[in-house]
UniProtKB/TrEMBL annotation:
Belongs to the citrate synthase family. GO terms for cellular component: cytosol. It comes from the Bacteria. SUPFAM superfamilies: Citrate synthase (SSF48256). CDD domains: CCL_ACL-C (cd06100). This is citrate synthase (unknown stereospecificity). Keywords: Lyase, Transferase. GO terms for molecular function: citrate synthase activity; lyase activity. GO terms for biological process: carbohydrate metabolic process; tricarboxylic acid cycle. Its EC number is 2.3.3.16. The keyword Hydrolase does not apply.
Length: 257
């Protein structure tokens, strides 16, 4: 095997790192420092180019909205417990992030797949929703186990409306999401509004991100809250924090039932 074979093994267009050289997607890092924000740099790293005007602000809004949901979220609780075990912030963060899966943290990706399917076939909302609901009683991106109406929904959708008016995005994913919401709320006695996963899926779809990156971007955003909670926990001096205060013991169920 030649040196070139080894070099080609790790061939990448994401970054160029050589002695005295650091380039991100072909742009010298020294040109980005001080002139390019973190969100625009995230876009650059994922898409290979800087975002068009207005797009970074919309992406930033989605990232800000998903930063934290308190210790009610398993990922946050796990990070806080892990932080009391003497393993360091990186391990506490990794523990919380590793809890983000299909059920906790995956709804944005699933919702964007749902929206993409509707956008690809205009007028298909009822059929697509019926197929999804035949597989699961949960429709990703709609309803919330904690909030009657998710307080993050309205400001995010307002920003998308404004971006459509400004010509920054086309509005197809927004229309698809609202068509689902309208369909769900025509059923008597039920009000199922879009939640944070639905609203951010709209933004990621409007900005052209594929569904797997919707999950990746959510994890990136939630990592901020995970870090903040883990750091706060380390400042409180508690050791080996469990899921319940020591005064509360789990219910014991005997083998006899």
């Amino acid at each position: 095997m030649s040196d070139q074979d080894v070099a080609d093994w790790w061939a990448t267009s994401v970054s160029r790192i050589e002695p005295g050289i650091i380039e991100l997607r072909g742009r010298p890092v020294q040109d980005l420092i001080g002139s390019t924000g973190l969100v625009a740099t995230i876009w650059l790293m994922l898409r290979g180019e800087l975002p068009p005007p207005g797009a970074a602000a919309l992406l930033e809004a989605a990232l800000v909205a998903s930063v934290d949901h308190g210790p009610q979220a398993p990922s946050i609780a796990i990070a806080r417990m892990t932080a009391t075990c003497g393993v360091g912030l990186n391990n506490a963060m990794a523990g919380g992030i590793n809890a983000l899966g299909d059920v906790h943290g995956g709804a944005g990706q699933q919702c964007l797949s749902l929206l993409d399917e509707i956008v690809a076939t205009p007028g298909s909302t009822a059929d697509v929703v019926a197929r999804w609901q035949s597989r699961s009683k949960y429709l990703p991106g709609f309803g919330h186990r904690f909030h009657p109406v998710d307080p993050r929904r309205e400001p995010l959708l307002t920003l998308v409306d404004e971006a459509v008016t400004a010509g920054i995005v086309e509005g197809h994913h927004l229309a698809a999401a609202r068509s689902i919401e309208d369909l769900l709320n025509t059923r008597p006695g039920r009000h199922i509004p879009m939640n944070i996963d639905g609203a951010t899926a709209v933004i990621y779809g409007e900005l052209g991100f594929p569904p797997p990156l919707a999950r990746g971007l959510f994890v990136l955003s939630r990592s901020v809250g995970i870090l903040a909670h883990a750091w706060e926990e380390t400042q409180q001096g508690r050791r080996i924090k469990g899921p319940m205060p020591p005064s509360i013991l789990p219910t014991y169920r005997s083998p006899e039932g």
